[in-house]
Each structure stands twice: as C-alpha cells, then as structure tokens.
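FORM 7B: Structural annotation worksheet

SECTION A. Query
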Amino acid sequence: MVTGGLLVAGTTSDAGKSVVTAGICRWLARQGVRVAPFKAQNMSLNSYVTPGGAEIGRAQAAQAQAAGLEPVADMNPVLLKPGGERRSQVVLMGRPVADVDAMEYDDLKDLLRTTALESLARLRARYDVVVCEGAGSPAEINLRRSDLANMGLARAAGLPVVVVGDIDRGGVFAAFHGTVALLEPADQALVAGFVINKFRGARELLEPGLDMLRELTGRHVYGVLPWLDGLWLDVEDSLALDARHVTTGPPHGRQTLRVAVVRLPRISNFTDLDALAAEPGVVVRFVTGPAELDDADLVVLPGSRATVDDLRWLRRTGLAAALAERKGPLLGVCGGFQMLGREIVDEVESGAGKVDGLGLLPARVEFAPDKRLGRPEGTAYGQPVRAYEIHHGRVTVEGGEPFLDGCRAGDVWGTTWHGALENDGFRRAFLADVAARAGRDFVPAPATDFAALREARLDALGDLVERHLDTGALLRLISDGPPEVPFLPPGAPAAR
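SECTION B. Predicted structure
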C-alpha cells in the first residue's frame, strides 16, 4: 500500500490546485488508499462548518468528500477571511482568534506554523497519504521567509511538490520555468515536476513544448489535463466569479428562471448559488449595477464578510434604491439577510455602531464578539432542510412569516443559513413559488439531485487524474519522495 505525502502547488492563484488535489484524493480513494486533504493556510471567504463545529475552507470540505471523509479542522488549520483592504480575520483550528493587518499577522506566524505542522502530523499518522494544497504561488519570494503553506511546508515536512499551471491563460511554460528558477536550491530540490491544466486542442501540438520543458528543467511532466467546463464546485475565492455566468437552460422564454446575484465587494459563501445554477432552466448571473436587476425573476443578496461596508457600497452604486423599488422575489442569505433588515448595530465587525438597514424585512441585527458556527436543521415549504451557519450577527425577527431561522415579508425572504438550497425538495418548492410570483412558466426538474451531481463531478475529477496523469510516477513520488533534480539559476536555463 502506498504511503506518504504530496504538495500540489500552482503557478498562480486559481491555476487549478484545488481541482487537482480533489482529483488525486478521489483517484487514490478509489484505489483503496486512506487519503486525506490538507491546506495549511487558506485565504477564502467561502467556508464551511464541520460536524465538529469548526470553520474551514469550503474547498477542503469538498476535497474531504472526494476522499470519502467527513471534514475536520486539521484539514485546514489556518483560515484567513479578508474583511477589508488590509485586515483579515484569523480562524485557527476552526475558531476565530484575531482580526489583524498584514504587520500584526506576522506576529502570529510562529503559532500558525506550529499549529499547521501539528495538524499535518496528526493527519499523516491517521491516513496512508495526505495530499496538501498550496496557496497562491510558491514563488512569492517576498513572502518566503514566513511561508507556511508552500515551500515552507514542503521543507518542514519533507514533501515532494508538483506545480500546476493553467495553460488557458497563456505563458504556462515560462511560468513553470520561472517558478522553479526563483526558488532557492533547497526549495528547488523538492519540486519534482509539473501538471498542465485546462488544455484545449491537439495534444501532439503541445508535445514539443513538453519535451523542451523536461530538458530545460530536468523535471517530470506528470500529465496534461484537458479543458472540461463546469467540473468544479466549492471554489475558494472570487477570482472564479468571472467564469460563473452559468446558463443551464434556454436563455430566453417563459420556461426560464433568471436569477441575478449581487456581487458584493466582500461576497462570501457564493457557493450557496451552485445548486441554483445546477437546475435545468435556471440562468444565474452575478451583477454589480441597478440596470442588471431589471429582467431578473429572483434577486439574491448573498453573504458578506463586511456587512456594513457592503451595505454602504449598495447605497453608493444605486443598488440599494433599486432593491427597495423592486417588485418581485428577493432572497437574502446571511449578510444579505442582515442588510435587508431595519437596523444593524455593529461594534464588532465594522465598529460603525447603529446603521439603518434596507428596511425590507422586519428584523434587527446586533453583532456579537463570538461567531456562531452550527449545522442547523429545519423545515420550509413542508420540506426538510439541513444547512450550516457562520455569522457574528444575531438577528431578532420582529414580524413577518417564519422562513427557516429568518422571516419572509411578501416577496422578500431572509435566512442566515448557508447551503439550504442544496436540499432538493426545498429548492424545488422555493423555485416553484418564485416562478409563480414572477409570472414565469418555469417548472423545477423533479430529477435534479444536487448531492449526486457533486459526487459525479468529483468522480469526473478522479477520472481526469486516472486517464491523463502519469499515475505510476505519481505513486512513486508520493511513496519515495522528491527525486534528484538539477538546480536552475535564476534567469539562466539549464544547459541542454
């Protein structure tokens, strides 16, 4: 049985690290390997609550599912949640411990590094293989001294490294070579090779470049993953939002339901909308201006890491006025729900004190220092709902009709529960109500099974790894560790 570890790094953010990590986890699990995912430090506003009540990155929860596991805090011991241009909330082992700027964060690095290495050690003692995902790029040389997610982790744990590059962006060969060449010798020694992601076209046209890359770097090319659209859910950050204008049905006609999601500056847990986008006949798009709401049958005001600041943004852009004047279904989730209330009292997140909400729901919000993390269950539309909640705001409902933990007033709904739309029966009943109120002939597909869709996509990632990567070489790398590789001086390719 194979045992060991691997770090999946990337030439850039959103290069495909999360996808490749999930694919390797699913492939290994299908081989009977006890495998677990790990990300030492994640910066993301898309998070999840484990059964144990810990908050971790949503991508690591999906990777745990790929491995056939329930997620635990050890899989993502450090989570950073940006709340402004310079400040982030630090979540350590699933619990918030501080709000810091970049300089203050540096003071925590020893604690964070120790915690991350202890988490990794526990996972390695429990599982045959741990597949680690890096963060950003390993060649961020300005951050190398304090790095705990890329080469700093690889060095400390003796992990071999595979670097993923997105060829669809262009410049992937330069990115591979430059990534390695910028590393110091001890870091370079751990970089075993490369994986090309999102390739379109004839493989034979790529082969000369692959051959040259091997010659120039002395490193293995573990494979080329083809472009397959719509494979990944549970993305980490808003870099992926530009690609998430998703049409699953005909773009026009009375049978189509059009959903506009307000793209808040600090939007969080926008993965709540994945289940809507998976419904045949539903068109989901992200919007930033009032005119984009005009033809929407449903508007969604999603979660936010900075509720008061994003509410100010709504007012500056004219979206607040457009929402207030709008006639038609409107759903607020978590931070979006809080904005729809009458009043927000926030001495915790923004320090703004008392702020008027949009006044579209009979609710009042007061922020508390402690964060509420939970896995609530309830019913709505006569359907069972299982969800999760992550919020500092405590909402007091002062009227309207009950809706999950929140309320409804006319065509406006609000809840702090994330993931509610992943419940198939509830989602279908809610969308049928929305369609009737919007005057559409849309009928939800009775066979849509979102949990099965997520499993199918994880299986597809496992298939990609099995069919397009050199799995024999990957197994040897995981078991044997980094091979001997040449040093590449910065700015000078290796002799050919």
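SECTION C. Observations
The mean pLDDT is 93. Residues 199 and 206 are 9 Å apart (CA to CA).

SECTION D. Sign-off
Analyst initials: ____
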